[in-house]
Each structure stands twice: as C-alpha cells, then as structure tokens.
Amino acid sequence: MDLIPATSAPRIPVRDRNGLALGDFPVRRIYCVGRNFADHAREMGAAVPASLAERGSPVFFMKPADAVVIDGVVPYPPGTADLHHEVELVVALGRDAPAGVLPVDAADTLVFGYGVGLDLTRRDLQAAAKAKGLPWDTGKGFDCSAPISTLLPAARIGPLDHLPISLEVNGARRQSSTLDQLIWNVPEILHELSKLYALRAGDLVFMGTPAGVAALLPGDTFHARLGDALELRGQIAPAAV
Length: 241
Fold this sequence. Notes:
This protein is mainly beta. It has a single domain (21-237), classed as Alpha-Beta Complex (Fumarylacetoacetate hydrolase, domain 2), CATH 3.90.850. It contains four helices and 17 strands. Strands 4-3-15-8-9-12 form a six-stranded mixed β-sheet, covered by helices on one side. Strands 6-17-16-13-14 form a five-stranded mixed β-sheet, with no helix packed on it. It has a two-stranded antiparallel ribbon with strand order 1-2. β1 and β2 (21-26) form a beta hairpin. The chain is globular, with a radius of gyration of 17 Å.
C-alpha cells in the first residue's frame, strides 16, 4: 500500500500537422544542452569553437519532469528578478537506447517527435552560482521552467537541417535562427548523452538556444515557432502566492 498518493508522469499532447490529436507523451526526464548555438555562446561570454574538431564536449544540465507547462501560462518564479527566455527545439524519445554508447548513425531511431519550447532561466541565480564556481541548478531547474508546444511525430516534420526557429515577445522578434546553426546536431547530442545516461522512451532533450535571450516580465506574452509546423503561445502570469 502506498503511504502517500502516487504522482503520475506529466503528459504532453501529440498532434499531427492538421491538429488531429494522436494521444499523449508521458515525460520521464528532461535533458538540456547549453551553449549549442555559437551566437548564444558569444553573448554569454563563452568561447566558441573555431571548427568541428575543436568543439570539445557539450554542456548538459537537467530540469525536473514536472517543470513542463502545456497550457502556456507560466507564473513568474520566486527567488529571481531576472527571468530570461531561451527558445529551443525539443526532441522527444520514443524508444529506449541499447546498452552502451549509442552510435551517431543509429541515434535517429530513438526519436519519436519534436516540439518547440522555452528553457526559462533565473539568470541572476545562474550568474551568481557561476561566479562562485557552484552548480546552477536553481537557475534552470525550477517549477514551470519548461513550457512546451504539442509534439509532432518526426515523420510529419521532415528534415531539420534548415528549419527556422524563432521567438516573439509582445509581438516583437527577440530570437531567430535556423537549426543548421546548432554546434551539435540531434544525433550527436543523443550520442553524447548516452555516454552519461541511460536514455529511455519518454525523455525530452532541449537542444539549446540562439542569441537574443532577454528578460520576461509579468504580463508579457510569447510566441515561439519551429518552421510552420509547431508553435507555442503563452504568457507570464503574476507570481504565485
């Protein structure tokens, strides 16, 4: 007998390109990639590799699974005065990875579908932790820090190579790029993650953000797009009390 009520996995709606509901995607884990667009790395003061051979290793961090927001309403989080947006491609895994390191050329077989989401960041907390050489979990892994669109099966979105990704805040463009500007692409990131974690069906991977990150305030509205296939609309609500 359970001593406390069991919690269910957060679920993200899955739809086709015509908006037809196909079911729900239960979330297991949320992995995130830092500094995966060169222009964003520069704006954050980080070194940018001059060539593919100099990329080194990706930067990974995590968010709790229940940080996902599917209705677009994000309460302004506690503990910060500098909440930032980071628009990102989100990869949804539909199969478990085999044991061992996942080969790059087999990584696409794990992908169920894609979404567009925001990696919300308490930038002041992150900056303070970085300055002291401390982990910056509190800057990234907080409640409602991962608003996400519905998911679209991979077969219905086609090649990612030059797909545009963008974010508008209050109707003004803040971020815009194309996915060919990723430093590490999706198969490469899954390969690198498999060196550190057992990837499983239900995992999400937030793939990193282009330049243009900036503050969000209560009352702001946001509109994220991934090509003409996916969009996420929402707003920043007053802080929860």
